Write a sequence for this structure.
């Protein structure tokens, strides 16, 4: 089982295929297993790197709440690239993974060849809206602390994998799901790399954010997948794979 040691925190990851590098980051309370319906199609042409964020799946769940943060997560992503000797990659993710992909671009713009943002949002400009999101993140954390892993949702991306620590998910809710400022949403218009913004047509909570990102990111490609919810890659894998491969073909030339 491949593990990356990050100052004593071991992160689970997988590398599949060969060609231009593509990093995929799962959503909150999901795992790298959520990408299984897409892996065979993508790995035919690309080097696909999957991983479990700290507190999730087969990665470690540090006991220190301070070990969970946006900054730690994007540095974990950079360390994954370093471990594979990769300077630049296509960076993509779903939900929290998409937000962290935007945060990675903010921290490491030179390491991003392109962005793929699936069923996600860029955060909030208004303090009141952000506070409401953070209240829900705190409620989620408390649910894991009181109910354990029974507090997991039933979304397709969540049920695709398994977790070892409810406390790790609680820490991740407070440190990674909760948001501190408007840095990420404020930089959308400055993104210069090709960007795919994709969502399931039934993912109503994220459709407005999808439209917003597509309108603000210069030259963004927007795709709405019919008959798909929040886990568009699982609900309609063929349509999802087709959209992603078409985007990657345009920006990379299709692999080796």
């Amino acid at each position: 089982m491949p593990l990356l040691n990050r100052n004593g925190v071991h992160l689970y990851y997988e590398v599949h295929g060969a060609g231009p590098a593509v990093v995929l980051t799962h959503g909150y309370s999901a795992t790298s297993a959520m990408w299984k319906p897409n892996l065979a199609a993508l790995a035919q042409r690309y080097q696909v790197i999957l991983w479990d964020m700290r507190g999730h799946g087969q990665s470690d769940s540090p006991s220190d709440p301070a070990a969970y943060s946006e900054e730690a997560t994007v540095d974990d992503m950079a360390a994954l690239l370093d471990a594979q000797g990769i300077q630049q990659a296509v960076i993509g993710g779903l939900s929290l993974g998409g937000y962290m992909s935007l945060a990675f671009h903010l921290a490491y713009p030179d390491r991003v060849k392109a962005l793929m943002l699936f069923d996600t949002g860029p955060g909030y400009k208004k303090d009141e809206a952000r506070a409401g999101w953070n209240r829900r993140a705190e409620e989620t954390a408390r649910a894991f602390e009181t109910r354990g892993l029974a507090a997991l949702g039933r979304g397709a991306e969540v049920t695709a994998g398994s977790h070892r620590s409810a406390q790790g998910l609680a820490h991740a809710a407070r440190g990674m799901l909760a948001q501190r400022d408007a840095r990420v949403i404020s930089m959308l218009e400055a993104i210069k790399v090709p960007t795919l913004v994709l969502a399931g047509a039934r993912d109503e909570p994220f459709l407005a954010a999808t439209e917003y990102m597509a309108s603000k990111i210069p030259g963004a490609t927007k795709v709405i997948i019919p008959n798909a919810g929040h886990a568009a890659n699982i609900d309609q894998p063929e349509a999802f794979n087709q959209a992603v491969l078409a985007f990657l073909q345009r920006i990379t030339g299709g692999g080796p």
Q: What stands out?
A: The chain has one domain: 3-250.
